[in-house]
Design a protein that fits this description.
By secondary structure, this protein is mostly helical. It is 67% helix and 5% strand.
Length: 223
């Protein structure tokens, strides 16, 4: 279950308690007001998925649909084929949720790690995608290097932004070709910036809810 920060959560519970005491029952306005405030806090605390993660999830969704349609036409015959195809489907379903595929052992370890560190279900896919919950190594990878990496890797985004600025200011009259080139540079700059921000600063912000950076390692927080 997702949890906001303690102060916000306490404020929302106080508002809910006041709502229940007004007339001894919920009203439509009270429920709507509580839901608006709750979803506002939810949106503020939840890290948005980077565009590459969303594209990867979409790819796995289409791949699973294609695979399931193929199975309806050519169902498995032997027991080994059925086991292999079931594992393949489970791996794709895992990838649709977390953005990365994992075998049976990796999926089991991932579930155990999420439960052990009490990671919210809305944060878990983001941390798995960014390899904080590292499936291949079956360990947690988190530390100060996340935000340091973000500082270094924003330079390519800044470079394309400057190219877009130079292209726009290159002449007095902005031609159609220059406008298109400027838009392309801006799109590339935004894409790189969003990807690197998600894989560094946002990772550090979300991971800090569950782990305390200790030099280049981490210490799990007691939740």
């Amino acid at each position: 279950m997702f949890r906001a920060d303690p102060e916000s959560e306490l404020h929302l519970l106080e508002q809910l308690e006041k709502s229940t005491k007004s007339g001894g029952q919920f009203s439509i306005d009270n429920i709507a007001s509580f839901n608006r405030k709750w979803y506002a806090h939810l949106s503020d605390n939840m890290a948005p998925r980077p565009w590459l993660m969303s594209a990867t999830v979409f790819f796995y969704q289409k791949r699973l649909q294609f695979y399931e349609k193929r199975l309806t036409v050519n169902p498995p015959v032997s027991t080994n084929d059925r086991i292999a195809q079931t594992e393949h489907i489970e791996s794709l379903r895992f990838a649709i949720h977390y953005g990365r595929r994992g075998n049976a052992e990796q999926r089991t370890w991932c579930s155990q790690a999420i439960n052990a560190y009490r990671i919210a279900q809305l944060d878990a896919p983001f941390l798995v995608w960014n390899r904080v919950i590292n499936l291949r190594r079956r360990t947690i990878v988190f530390g100060h290097w996340d935000w340091i990496f973000g500082v270094c890797m924003t330079l390519p985004a800044l470079e394309f932004f400057l190219l877009a600025l130079i292209s726009a200011l290159g002449s007095n009259a902005l031609s159609i070709a220059q406008a298109m080139l400027t838009m392309v540079f801006l799109a590339i700059s935004w894409g790189i910036f969003d990807l690197f921000i998600s894989s560094s600063f946002r990772v550090f912000r979300v991971g800090s809810r569950y782990f305390k950076p200790d030099s280049w390692r981490y210490t799990p927080l007691q939740r």
